[in-house]
Amino acid sequence: MSNSQTKPVDPVLLAPILHTGPGYWFLIGALSAVVAWGLYAWVHQLLEGLGVTGMNRPIYWGLYISNFVFFIGISHAGTLISAILRLAGAEWRRPITRAAEAITVFALIIASTQILADMGRPDRLLNLLFSGRFQSPLLWDVMAVGMYFLGSIVYLYLPLIPDLAILRDQLPATTSAWRRWLYRVLALGWHGGFEQRRRLDKAIGIMAILIIPLAVSVHTVVSWIFGMTLQPMWHSTIFGPYFVAGAIFSGIAALLIVMIGFRKAYHLEAYLKPIHFSHLGTLLLIMSLLWFYFTFCEFLTAIYGNEPHEMRVVLYKLTGEYAPFFWTMVVTNFLIPVAML
């Protein structure tokens, strides 16, 4: 054990790293099967062409772009919970910040893979990087997501340095050599001194300030991919804040689901307490009301204007073939959260 100032931690927190039960390996196997299935489908798409997805004129965007928007939205959990609450000095955030920050990075990775699949041929990404036109919102999106991803990795890693030092110092001697080496390298020589803590807190504070506008810009630019077109109900100035509000809404919901699962699976009742779920529930209620406000404004404007092309889309959603999906969205995004919270 090195000469560090890391304090002993509750064995409950180290248990998931030291021991893996049958449930863990069952989950790994099930997820590996899903990934293998996805790789098979992707190879089939590469061989047969993008037409196998059902996308064609005029249906240019399908499940891939829907997944991209969804996971970009999920990634906002880390920004809201960790960055904004850190700057606001909300101490209750501490037990949940790691999960929030990790969700951001993982969701961005998944979102990026959706773009690769949607392009049909992955080599076309080089055309966007080397021959892209700055007038295109697609190029803006690549730049925004790339910067947000790099910033999120740094923002996740910085607070992890003291935790990595704990793993370096307190894992048992029977731990494999490569894991001990990995934690030693990632801990960057952390010993918990005053000057180290001062510099780390300053770096985290700077990243917390930088990551918020990056996150807002990402989903704003994603909304512009739709809003810059002349499609009815898409060509709207409200899309930027509408997408950001929806992203934060879905991010909080994702964080709650992850917290419930981790609390149950790893017996973290002493750390993830009812007060954390209460505060997150309040934030979820606020975002639900904000989402409904933007949705109401969007439809009120379209209905009052009574423009034929937009009314066609409105009726498709309210009473047409998409009505079951629309009203299910209203019930699950607004009525149920308001009634429960």
From TrEMBL:
GO terms for cellular component: plasma membrane. It is found in: Cell membrane. The keyword Kinase does not apply. It is a multi-pass membrane protein. Pfam families: NrfD (PF03916). The keyword Oxidoreductase does not apply. Signal peptide: none annotated. Keywords: Cell membrane, Membrane, Transmembrane, Transmembrane helix. The chain crosses the membrane at residues 24-43, 63-87, 99-117, 137-158, 204-226, 238-262, 283-304, 324-340. Belongs to the NrfD family. PANTHER family: POLYSULPHIDE REDUCTASE NRFD (PTHR43044:SF2), PTHR43044. This is Polysulfide reductase. It comes from marine sediment metagenome.
